[in-house]
Amino acid sequence: MALVSGAGGVGEPREQRGMHTAFDLSFAHTEGRWARPGSWVGASFPDVRIYQEIARTAERAGVDLLFFGDGSGIPDTWRGSMDAAVEWGIQWPRHDMSPVVTSMAAVTEHIGFGLTYSSTFQHPFTVARLLNSLDHVSRGRIAFNVVASARGADAANYGFDERMDHDERYDRMAEFMAVCRALWASVPASAIVADRSTGRFADPSQVHPIDHVGRYFSVKGPLASMPSPQGQPVLVQAGNSPKGIATSAEFVELVFGFGGSVEGKRRHRAALDAALVAAGRASAVDTVGILWATQALVGRSAREAAERRDEVAAFWNPEAVGAFLSHNVGFDFSTLPTRFTVGELVAEVQRVNGAQGGFVGSLAASLGASASLSRQELFEHGWQHATGLDHTLCGTAASVADALEADFEATGSRGGYMFASPLAAPSGFGDLAELLVPELRRRGALAPRYAGATLRENLGLEGGDGVAG
Prior knowledge:
It holds the Pfam family Bac_luciferase. The protein has 16 helices and 17 strands. By secondary structure, the protein is an alpha/beta fold. Strands 3-4-5-6-11-12-13-17 form an eight-stranded parallel beta barrel, surrounded by six helices. A two-stranded antiparallel sheet has the order 1-2. Mean pLDDT is 91; it is low at 1-16.
């Protein structure tokens, strides 16, 4: 095994572990993907057969996780209207994908499934109960991506007149997750006796209320469910603001990182490690991996890959870009002045309680607060971000694998990659599963293939007992 510096102290050798892989299916049908060559003929979103085919193909390749983000509102921040998003299919339509996950679990045996629910709008008892049930249906293959929602269209659907303050969203998330973890621990596996000779089902001394009374939630408990195969789902979080990282460090087991430059990834990794230590979870520094969001386009030749990349670029027009950026940041970019600094943009996004990471955070990190931009220059950056072409790995399986191996070692060799495809489903993900993943496996770059019975075991995580880490 190669040795890299990292986990213990600075410069101490650590055994390098293989990458884990995931497919991000959140937008496999939006932003023009449904119309591109390679999309299904005779079936389209939300036909479960598409997702079942992707699941089977990904499992044959040994992909660890299929991931679904979520959003419950049609984007309407751009120009204060949802028309552009509706017309061009920008991050809509969106369904609750938990029923789809059950159908995918029924045709697979090993691959895991990540679902997203909002701690800003949902109640922890409902979410804890749902995910417990899904963990049983999938036989221990569920991950929970908890989000703090910044999108105005979502907030309006839950009765909020305005977005919750950025830091308060994470305060609510912290309490939300404390309740969920307590509920999952309220009926431990050891409580189930199931003695057929006496008919005694469970030990009441081990089943207890949680009696939680907090700022946001009041929950008596216990969770009136059987303990799930994993104890609790694998806990995932994607916040990359200082407050988001600090909050997630209390519970997170796997991080969804937004990629970017090697330097940016190193900063994120260092901030996460420091937050884990501050949260009293120093032992988790070496076990909490980051799956870097990575859009990949793989061809059987470099020319084929380049031609398919051009297909992606052709879809996007200014209205589609504006709708995409404004929705995800929570700021109407049509209101920008002719010229401004990046620092002024950041301040304005903060003022409206928009998302301070993602596009705006990456812009600030790469250009600096004092950089001056025109609206046209901003939208050129925005076009790259919306298309994903600013962070797309494009080429043959060998060339993309080369880039991933170098990046993995340079950023700490903990975690792996969450692959999105700008191409149609299922063909884009089919190429990743049939070309890229086998190339990485041939090189010995991947973690062992389905080493255990549950997603938690396959990711090399400790058993879930309601307390992460």
